[in-house]
Amino acid sequence: MSDLTNDIVLRPRFKIDLATDLESLKKNFDRTSEPPFVLKRLDEHIYLRFRKEHTNFWSPQLHLELTSFEKNKSTIHGVFGPNPTLWTFFMFLHFGIGTLFVILGIFAYSKYSLGNDITLWVVGMFFLVVLWFALYAIGRFGKSQGKGQMKQLSLLLEDLIQNLPRS
Predict the structure, then answer these.
(1) Cα gap 138→135, rounded to integer Å
(2) How far, in Å, CA of 61 to CA of 51, rounded?
(3) Digit-coded pLDDT (tens) for 141-160
(4) Residue 37 pLDDT grade (very low, low, confident, very high; cuts 50, 70, 90)
C-alpha cells in the first residue's frame, strides 16, 4: 500500500494487487468487526469506519472496491475520505461557489460591455475566490485531524489481508 503522506489530495487513493481469487478475498472480509471498527461488506464494496463512540466530525472512513479480471488475480482499490454526508456538503458548497462566481462574471462582463462600473461585481468574485480557498484550507485541516485514524484504518486493512499472497 502506498504511503498516506500525500499533502495535496484530500481523498488519498491506493491500489493493492493480490495473487488470489475474488471469492477467497471476499471471504477474508466476512469477519466480524472488532472495536473500535465497523466493517461492512456489500458484494465487492467494503466500508471500514469507526464506531459512533470513537468518531468525531473529521473521522475518516475507508472504502474498498474488490476487482478481478484474471483468474487468481485480484485488486483492492481503496479511497480514504470523510463521512459521505460531510463530503457531499463540501462538494455542494464548492459547486455553489463556482456557480456564483460564473454568474457574477457574466454580470460583470455585461456591465463592462455597457460601460457601467463593475467594482462591486469584481469584489464579489474576489470574495468568492477567497471563500473557495478557505473551504480548501478547512478540508486540509480536517484531513490532518483524521490522519491518526487513517493510519489505524490502514493497519486494520493490512491485518485483514496479511496472509494473502501479493502479486
Answers:
(1) 5
(2) 11
(3) 988 898 899 999 999 999 98
(4) very high
* Residue 165 one-letter amino acid: P
CA distance 162 to 1: 12
| Calpha distance 102→144 (Å, rounded) | 31
3-state secondary structure of 165: coil
Residue type, 41: R
| Upstream peptide bond of 36 is cis (omega within 30 degrees of 0) | yes
Determine the Cα angle at 35 with ends 78 and 27, to 5°.
50
Residue where the block lists cell 469584481: 122
Considering the entire predicted model, what is its pTM?
Answer: 0.78
Q: Residue 74: is it exposed, middle or buried by C-beta count within 10 angstroms (0-12/13-18/19+)? A: buried
Indicate the pairing of strand 13-18 with strand 37-42: unpaired
Residue 110 sits at φ, ψ, to 5 deg, of -65, -40
Single-letter amino acid, residue 123: V
C-alpha cell at 4: 498516506
